Amino acid sequence: MTTDGALARIIRSSADRAAEPETERCDLCAAPVPDGHPHLYDIADEQVSCACGPCSVLFADGGAGEGRYRLVPRRRIRLPRVDTDVLGVPVGLVFFVPRADGTVTAEGPSPAGAMRWEVDAEAWERLAAACPPLASVEPDVEALLVNTVHGNDHHWIVPVDDCYRMVAVVRREWRGLSGGGRIWPAVDRFFEDLTERT
């Protein structure tokens, strides 16, 4: 075997790997995960992690993760219009996450990521009393996702990973100071996709 032959094989092998689409992997064990894989919410770091099937069972909800991880549910429920004005959030594209400690956060996408502020917990309770499905939102792992921008009327109970996908869409498509012409068509496509997934 010549050195030239070995070098050519290494170069071909590297080129083949570069041409292959990168496989998504479990954030806990690095195993490949398929599309539609489960997600775990890391309570300590307040972030969503991709998980393979075994890790989602092993680490979720008080398992080997000792309560650090919660399995993100997959339900999506379209709601009739919800009067979120009572929550005092002056933006039309936002999601509200009730927390296990009783607080409620509002998060809105921006070119730099999600902006976060705390919502009055009593106002959330009054809103949940007026819209009973909101009382079933699982703390930390589900959210009320709202889009009333440009005449839209979307009000959903969704998994938090959907909310982070929406934030990623805004970050990816934002151009200039005002967002540019690509941002709102991309957000509309996100909500069309949400409807199709339901």
Sum this structure up briefly.
This protein has 198 residues and is an alpha+beta fold. 32% of the residues lie in helices and 23% in strands. It has five helices and nine strands, in the order H-E-E-H-E-E-E-E-E-H-E-E-H-H.
Would you kindly provide a written description of the structure presented here, covering whatever features stand out?
- The protein folds into 2 domains: 3-71, no CATH class; 77-197, no CATH class.
- It has 5 helices and 9 strands.
- It has helices at residues 3-19, 53-59, 121-130, 160-173, 183-197, and strands spanning 39-42, 47-50, 69-71, 77-78, 93-98, 104-110, 113-119, 142-147, 154-159.
- Strand 5 and strand 6 (104-110) form a beta hairpin.
- The longest helix has 17 residues, at 3-19.
- It is globular and about 45 Å long.
- Pfam families: DUF5947 (PF19372).
Q: Which spans have pLDDT < 50 for at least 5 consecutive residues?
A: none
Morphology call: globular
Mean pLDDT: 86
Rg over CA atoms: 21 Å
Count of the separate structural domains: 2
Structural class: alpha+beta
Task: Please give the share of residues in helix.
Answer: 25-40%
Q: How far is the N terminus from the C terminus?
A: 57 Å
List SSEs in N-to-C order.
HEEHEEEEEHEEHH
> Could you give the count of β-strands?
9
How do the strands of the widest beta sheet line up side by side?
4-9-8-5-6-7
Helical stretch tally: 5
The percentage of residues in β strands lies in 15-25%
- Biggest β-sheet description: 6 strands, antiparallel
